[in-house]
Amino acid sequence: MSNLKSSEEPAVKFAKLMAELYYFMAQEMVERMGEENGKDAISSAVKKFGKARVDAMKIEAKEKGLDLSNPRTYAAVRDMPSNGWKYSDNDQSKITYCPMGDVWSQYGKAGMDLGHLYCEIDHILFEAFGMKLERPYCIAKGDKICKFNLKML
Questions:
Q1: Is residue 5 assigned to a domain?
Q2: What SS3 string covers 41-108?
Q3: Does 134 fall in a domain?
Q4: What letter would DSSP give residue 12?
Q5: At what angle do helices 121-128 and 108-119 cross, to 10 degrees?
Q6: Structural domain count, the chain
Q7: How many CB atoms lie within 10 A of CB 144?
Q8: Per the domain annotation, does 16 fall within a domain?
Q9: More exposed terminus of the chain, fewer Cβ within 10 Å: N or C?
Q10: pTM higher than 0.85
Q11: Is the pLDDT score of 77 beyond 90?
Q12: Which domain holds residue 26?
């Protein structure tokens, strides 16, 4: 039931494919393990994935001679492209379109709930680079935007 189009930019296609694979795997975990155990397993897997991403980004930062305590280092070694996501005019902290959320929305509330579990990865990534994320609005929670408020730790 994917809304993936062959004409889309490669980064967008991969984001949507990853989101759809995540959805089916997460849904299978919930179906086999029950809601509570399944969601606990999903959250644990997302945390481990986040840690693996952080480890790889920090290795790259060291190779480039970047200061791991400088929050700007995150932007220099960020592993996921931002093309495909749409932002509010002149405000990179407000995402108005998320290709992953677009995929999860196809599966209704269940898709969005499972997708939101994935969105928690952002907290792991930012904290690893000295920032605390507060997200009062999240597309996967049914909001019209994702709002990223970052503060230094």
A1: no
A2: HHHHHHHHHHHHHHHHHHHHHHHCCCCCCCCHHHHHHCCCCCECEEEECCEEEEEEECHHHHHHHCCH
A3: yes
A4: H
A5: 10
A6: 1
A7: 9
A8: yes
A9: N
A10: yes
A11: yes
A12: 10-152
